[in-house]
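Rotation project, supervised by the postdoc (A.L.). Task for the rotation student: set up a whole-complex structure prediction and record inputs and outputs verbatim in this book. Inputs entered:
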Amino acid sequence: MICVLTGGTGGAKFVDGLRQVIPAEQITLIVNTGDDLLWWGLYVSPDIDSITYALSGLLSRERGWGVKGDTFLCLQAMKQLGEPIWFHTGDRDLAVHLLRSRLLAEGKTLSEATAIICQKLGVKARILPMSDSRVETRVDTPSGELSFEEYFVQRWYQDPVNSVRFAGASDAEPAPGVIDAITSADAVLIAPSNPITSIGPILSVPGIREALHSAKGKIAAVSPIVGNAPVAGPAGILMAAQGLSCSIAGVAKAYEDFLDLLVCDSRDARGAEGLRGKGLRVQCTQTIMSSSEDRSALARTVLSLACGGLLRDEAAAGGSISEASGEPAPTSSEQP
Ligand code: GDP
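Outputs recorded:
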């Protein structure tokens, strides 16, 4: 069993790779809900939706969110009615928000609503919200405190950021199954997701960090930072606001109390060497997931490394891994 902590965009690409490599039934995903919002009166959980769509094959690869081939008729109609339309929801996407909102209004928990939607969409992996309680990522800016979606989607992450906090976290509990999924997994993978606003909210839920400390399997993270910059989005700005450098060293620092292995991009070989000098196990490989093959190759490599050679042959076939800074990737017989 593999447990994955994930956000929406980078996480969904990685999860798309994982589902190509191991049976979905063996994957439990613990998903950030700090971005959740009420939109047009509906409960929207952007990261759960992205992961659900990735696993059901519905995710739009062009946009990286929402349903592929979706139409936006309702959005246009809402615009004509003078309603806000800065958060784009396609029509089929909207159906999921409607169903989830109805289930919640009937008294179901977010976990239960998620399980029902997954079952209806044919998702075989287990998707767990990090918590059934409301934990809200709040971004403090000179213009005031914003929700994550206001900061990210409505305002295009142009505001300077003072700090980030997770409102409600201290009173939250992990959703049912979360702690057991972490402690009993053969490996725990941290997706290449934003360390502050995707993985940060998950870690803020009391008990989850402690569960990582007592996890049976190895814990491996894939860096969302490549060449001292995020592949996309505001991770660098948010890391700086939280006192972390925008580098693989910053990612390692965010996870330092539980991380066994950091998987970073081959172009960060020099930084990797520095981290190894401090005692962290670091592997360099190609981590940019442009194609479906990139995604499955990265998933294979990370699984192989985290599961202690269980999938070694597949990893060797899937991509080049290097433990040594600045040297050519070893041949498959040299794989660790
Ligand atoms: P969000 O919930 O939509 O913010 O999504 P995530 O937190 O899961 O993903 C955002 C992060 O994914 C960003 O920090 C990006 O740098 C990272 N990311 C996106 N695509 C890639 C990729 O192809 N490779 C790697 N290594 N990171 C990526």
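Student's summary: The chain has one domain: 2-65+110-139+168-334.
Supervisor addendum: Residues 310-318, 324-336 have pLDDT under 50 and may be disordered.
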